[in-house]
Amino acid sequence: MVTPNLKMACVRLIEEIATDDKAKLRGVLKKIAECCFKQDNYHLAAKKFTQAGDKVQAMRALLKSGDTRKIVFFASVSRQRDIYVLAANYLQTLDWQRDADAAKNIVSFYTKARAFDLLAGFYESCAQVEIEERRDYEKALAALNKAHECLQLGGDTSKAAARIRSHIDAIRKFLAVQELYTDSPLEAVAQCEDMTKLNLEPAVRKRDLFAFLVQHYVNGKDYAAARRCLQELQMAVPGVAVSDYVDAEVLRLVGWSSDERRSLQQMSLLARCVTASNGAATERDEDRYSSDGEVQEELFD
């Protein structure tokens, strides 16, 4: 008896699978796509998911591949809300702050998806970048205005809209102070000093308010007042790197040293520890009163 020479058959994945049952074909294609996905072959998985009619899963496969060009292209041609949102969400994980095309695509995809709440959130992020990285409050204001418009388009009157309005008001006030400074510097400084006593973060940072004051006093050669502002800044914002917000020449003129910075940081840390300790003591007192019913006696006797 002759034993046939058996060889391992090599099965090749072909473009089309012969069957007249469309539902069965989609099921087979989906299983193939899932196998490809598990093997990290994301591009082929996306292709098979697309052939199976599951474009959302196809997009998820592309997202895993990290192929930004294909992700943007696929979102553009698919024209599905969920896919637009997935693509825009992905683009926000990239360095969109330095990629104008990515930022434009994020806005475009959220707009096409009519995801106005997400678009508003993106504009808020844009505003924060303008403040944190560029200290450009005018561009930040423009971004927040767009965020507010998006929430209005979506019919949102929630806390998010109220928060954005409060940020807009704070930035407008700071910009008005800067504009006022040209004609009435003393009045502008007084208003800025009042603003340092408020908690306007993250819309207007205390460090920028104090930097404005320091520059004013240095321009008038009142180095003692400028130095006092730096000390107040260190106490108000523990750990802040003053050199990031105040010019090195200004620091030299006011005699600002690294030793003084460390000393003020230690004082600020001590003050926070004392505050926390007092707060804990207050909580213990409240617990004692509430445990034995003496709260009512304290309040109403």
TrEMBL record:
Entry-linked Pfam families: TPR_IF140-IFT172 (PF24762), TPR_IF140_C (PF24760)
GO process annotations (BP): intraciliary retrograde transport
InterPro entries, per database record: TPR-like_helical_dom_sf (IPR011990), TPR_IF140/IFT172/WDR19 (IPR056168), TPR_IF140_C (IPR056156)
UniProt superkingdom: Eukaryota
Gene3D superfamilies: Tetratricopeptide repeat domain
IF140 C-terminal TPR domain mapped to chain residues: 117-234
Keywords from the UniProt entry: Cell projection, Cilium, Repeat, WD repeat
One Gene Ontology cellular component: intraciliary transport particle A
Stretches assigned to the IF140/IFT172/WDR19 TPR domain: 18-109
Keyword Repeat: yes
Composition bias, Basic and acidic residues: 282-291
Protein location: Cell projection, Cilium
Annotated stretches, region: Disordered: 281-301
Major location category of this protein: other
The protein, known as: Uncharacterized protein
Species, as recorded: Rhipicephalus microplus (Cattle tick)
